[in-house]
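re: ur question from the group chat, yeah i did fold both. here u go
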Amino acid sequence: MKILKAKEMQLLDQRTIEGLGMPSILLMEKAGLSVVEAIRRVFPHVKRVLVVAGKGNNGGDGLVVARHLHLLGYKVGYVLALGEDLKGDAGLQLKILKSLGLEPLREVDFKDFDLVVDALFGTGFEPPVKGEALRWIELINNSHLPVVSVDIPSGLSADSAKEYDPSVKANITVTFQFPKVCHLLYPSAKRCGRLYVANIGIPTWLAQDIKREVLLKVDPPKREPDVHKGLMGHVLILGGSTGKTGAVVMSARASTRTGAGLVSVGIPEDLNPIFESSLVEEMSIPLGGKGRLLVEAVKKVLEVQNRFSAVAVGMGMDRYQEGRLIIRELLLGLERPLLIDADGLNNLADLGVEVLKERKGITVLTPHVGEFERLSGLRKDHIVENLIDVAQDFAVKYGCYLVLKSSRTVIATPEGRAYLSIRGTPAMAKGGVGDVLSGILVALLGRGMPAEEALKLGVFLHGLAGEIAERKRHRESLRALDLVEAVPEAYNLIENEACDSFISYIP
């Protein structure tokens, strides 16, 4: 499902109306009816509804809601919060309401109602809120009533994840045809509540050129009947340092659980006894060095790189001068897919990201927001509020695949495509969870899947495993290794297409 911005949605509306001949009043009617359907579905016991309508098309949608609820027997009141001089389709909806004997309220007592419909501003609005709208948003938020927002909670920007204040705090939001950026990214998504996407008759093919997509479904990998371990990939995980051996262990175990045929870990030689006692199916390769990897040892790995189908580096690695040289050697000398995580990313930031432009093979970077701040030079708040845009820009500029981890995870490709995963849980905010993701991703890359498909599956699988682990444990007690043990069940849910969605639909 595509993710749209305000101007893109406006263009689709225009193409539907002018290019396909669909009357705009019909789109408004269908939009309002979808909100009515959501109210009846989610709030079946509500009988008294207040509609707070603005002056534009969003207000017109709200007036459609008021009319149909009235015809269904609800007690309905509506207020024209920003004035009564409604034009165009919204003006026509007001005329119809008045012809039914429904006049706008001059005074409002929220105690007379069970639910509020927020129809002040739609996707065309750009913050900040000014004037009389400030008072109405405050009244809605202080009413202690359930709130249904039409299209977006009033006060938000459709194009940003910023949690503007003031803005309406909705229990559910009904948006039309496609979700918008603010619905899916945090912190703005907290204002939206449960998201409903309604089909109002705009053809989905009109959005085929949009390169933003929410990741709702993935295809599991296939395993042929005559396969052997050599065909399932041999991944090499380079990392570990004194005090940080667990990161490599978790990553290696995740690779095995994800389906890698063989998993080897390249680690500092003096730490090898720790790995030998911690790993069973996986193999360790002592590479010399005391407490840290040496660049000379990594050069030797490059001489035998044909033994491996994909390499991951950085988990538990430490941040040091020689670490920068290791990253440089791998970027310039490794022909296999290379995934860089954790301290590998910090060493890359110290080295300078321009070296990525010299890389010939597939490169995957998996930073969290703090690591991406160091890589990109962007402010953290700007990254969070524009997560998809900054990921796309970076991936295109440096010709790499970027898995940008935040409360949502964005996968961006060198061609400019972006996929937003909404799987996962706040319980995954624990050390080691990123190491598990890297192990999952390198396993899928190592078995020969196209990078884009491997990353989509891996990120989805990781988030789903986190949800499963939380249900079995508790959100406060989840450990990174619980995700590893949940991978088999996550695979089963994907194969059986039994994954719950965070988005609901109104046909």
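okk and heres the other one u asked abt
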Amino acid sequence: MLNINKIVLALIPWVLPLFMACNNNTKAYKQADTHQEKTIEDQDNIPDKLIEVGEGKSVDGNLSAKVFATDSLTDSYQELFIQMEDSKGTVVKKAKISLLPEMKMGMMAHGAPVIQPAESAANGFFKGGVIFIMPSSIESQHNWTINLLVDQMGEPSNRVNVPIHVKEVKEARTIAFDGGDEGRFFLSLIAPERLPVGNQFIRFMLHRVSKNEFPAVFDGYEIALNTHMPDMGHGSEGNENAKAAGEGYYKGKVNLSMPGLWEVKADLLKDGKKVSTEPVIFKIQVKK
């Protein structure tokens, strides 16, 4: 809950001006999110087992879409697999799709960091990604929608809205933090809840909070990594800072030397100097 409150506080300066945009959000969110033109890694890698997490149809009925994932969606880095059909039931294989995630919170609304799909489907799926920065809440009427703006050659532009539900992850995988003069950021750990023992690669994505935009950040930054095992009172050696790997991804190494609960502390560096002004700590269960 603490992390959710920090995320809401991080967004308040930017979502308040969107009060009047809620009834006409197509334009607002198209402007907000289409800055991110990069595509997700391994576009052709489609998992064998996927579950449907949402579906929708365009207003004119000419286009339908289903959104799949490898598991139920959580407020973290999520790869999405989109399958579209035209009114005749023909699978769409080529299209420019803009993913526009939208969280409605009563009179307020905001987007989320996004990784746009390539323009060609792999095995019938367009693969993209969203970093959901907070969970859905039925009680508070906080609801996520994946808006798909679709452009096909020779066809008018279309839009499909896909309502989805996002559960709260057990341990935070996306954390908002202050970077001093550099602004506010979201750092996302791309990892399952549990990891094996050993020295291993670890990946992150870094996004800046800029009004209702969340541009990927990779120029001149580095993420210093330190590990600590709170139950045992010790850390580990052999960690390597996460360095930019392109398109907002960062890759480093951590040495999780024994089973149990570990904390990975991340500090944002700019040109070798620490700029993050508050702790960013990810908790990871390490299995035998």
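fwiw on the second one: The longest helix spans residues 2-15. Residues 103 and 110 are 5 Å apart (CA to CA). idk if thats what u expected
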